[in-house]
Amino acid sequence: MGRRPFVREQILEAAFHLMAVEGYEAVSTRQIAERAGVGSASMFKHFATKEDLGRELYRVALAPLQGQFVELAASKPEPRAALRAALRLLYTAYDERPRALALLVFPPHEITPPEVDPAAPHAVRAVLQRLLGADDDLAAIIWGALTGPLQDRFLRRRAGAMTPHADEHAKRIVRLLPT
């Protein structure tokens, strides 16, 4: 009985790595099972479908960051302060867990987990949009400006921390907000 949670964690860790690096659509359940060192039947005991696995992975991987954004929203900062704080949170999260941030900035197309659905109230992007008081277009522009450097760093596998650049990048991005 003690092995079941361990196998589940192995599967999630394998999926976490593969989906963050290759993307949700590019990874098969067979690849995940192989990387986890389990048989397909064992994997499907824990997750009935790839979609179930993907949804659980997003829930687990992005829960800490979602919680931080909910806390930020509760502090009711003005939009410019919210943008600076959000950028610090994203950059720090990237430095600590780049694969989790890859899931956030490269969401799947086949499914829309609530953690990356802009219409879901606790999704990071939705919380940020409300904090900024932005319409959908401005929110998309700012989201791209915030996550673009993270995408570049991840895709080019460049070394170095992002957090030291947060304040300088925030100065540039905050200019996108209306005065």
Report on the structure:
The protein has 9 helices and no strands. The protein is elongated, with a radius of gyration of 17 Å. The protein folds into 2 domains: 48 residues, Homeodomain-like (Arc Repressor Mutant, subunit A); 120 residues. With 179 residues, it is mostly helical.
How is this fold's topology laid out?
Layout: H1 3-22, H2 29-36, H3 40-46, H4 50-74, H5 79-96, H6 98-105, H7 124-132, H8 136-155, H9 166-173
Which key features would you list for this structure?
mainly alpha, 9 helices, 179 residues, Arc Repressor Mutant, subunit A
Count, helices:
9
Summed over residues and divided by their number, the pLDDT gives a mean of 92
Straight-line distance between termini:
59 Å
Low-confidence stretches: none
Strand segment tally: 0
User: Strand pairing plus helix content: what structural class?
Assistant: mainly alpha
Helical percentage: 55-70%
Task: List SSEs in N-to-C order.
Answer: HHHHHHHHH
Assembly type? single chain
Number of domains: 2
Largest sheet: none
Q: How would you sum up the global shape?
A: elongated
Work out the strand percent.
under 5%
What gyration radius follows from the Cα positions, in whole Å?
17 Å
